[in-house]
């Protein structure tokens, strides 16, 4: 059985109710809650101030506060285990009246944080910890920090015991890269223009950190969205912990020589 208005056209005009419980209307006003059920279990509910979603056991999984005073703070609040927002690429944008922060996953799983458009800073209130395996890196030969400020810097097991004679010989073999002064690379790296950089290729193999080629994103400056990628060769570096190890061993060698001279 089916009840319908004379002008009922499916999806166009009029209204209809059938004996299977299906109904179609143009508009409607409900003065109570709207509840959606599946297999006898509530799966969604719309009230005067919130939208709720439930799992198959009728356990609340998500609540969206549509009215500010329902939560006690201005704005819209989402309580949920997972929050996913998709645009032309998977991204989540958080904004207020002074700035916007974007969290973006690209098509290969890389994660980007775009800092506030007003301060361009990211503040961390608390500890920033990797999982305890001493495996993950902070930066690379392509992605590295310009200035790092710190109060203390602690080594955890990487100061090595180098042969004293080998260390003093390695120290003597370090040379300068004279052409580095005022070069484009020096300007880009903001290196002291008065002095030449040491030639990293002249360091011992256990100290050198070779450059690597990486694929980096091309980001549009205005939209801060990824518009492509390009391959870039990184900068050669040296391991500071190994340099400290070499210097300590060299000092020991020099000390032994001084002791012999003093006798």
Topology of helices and strands:
Layout: E1 2-4, E2 16-18, E3 23-24, E4 34-38, E5 41-46, E6 50-54, E7 60-65, E8 77-80, E9 91-95, E10 100-105, E11 111-114, H1 164-172, E12 176-177, H2 184-188, E13 197-198, E14 208-209, E15 213-219, E16 226-233, E17 237-238, H3 240-262
Antiparallel strand pairs: 1-2, 2-3, 4-5, 5-6, 6-7, 7-8, 9-10, 10-11, 12-13, 14-17, 15-16
Helix pairs in contact: 1-3
Task: Summarize, please.
With 263 residues, the protein is an alpha+beta fold. It is built from 3 helices and 17 strands.
Q: How would you explain this protein's 3D organization?
A:
The strands form 6 sheets. Strands 4-5-6-7-8 form a 5-stranded antiparallel β-sheet, with no helix packed on it. The longest helix has 23 residues, at 240-262. 4% of the residues are buried. It has 3 helices and 17 strands. It is α+β, with helices and mostly antiparallel strands. Helix 1 crosses helix 3. It has 3 domains: 2-82, no CATH class; 84-128, no CATH class; 164-262, no CATH class. The mean pLDDT is 85. A hairpin with a 6-residue loop joins strand 15 and strand 16.
Globally, the shape reads elongated
Number of strands: 17
Helix content: 10-25%
Task: Trace the largest sheet across and list its strands.
Answer: 4-5-6-7-8
Distance from N terminus to C terminus (CA atoms, Å) equals: 116 Å
By secondary-structure content and strand pairing, the structural class works out as: alpha+beta
Number of domains: 3
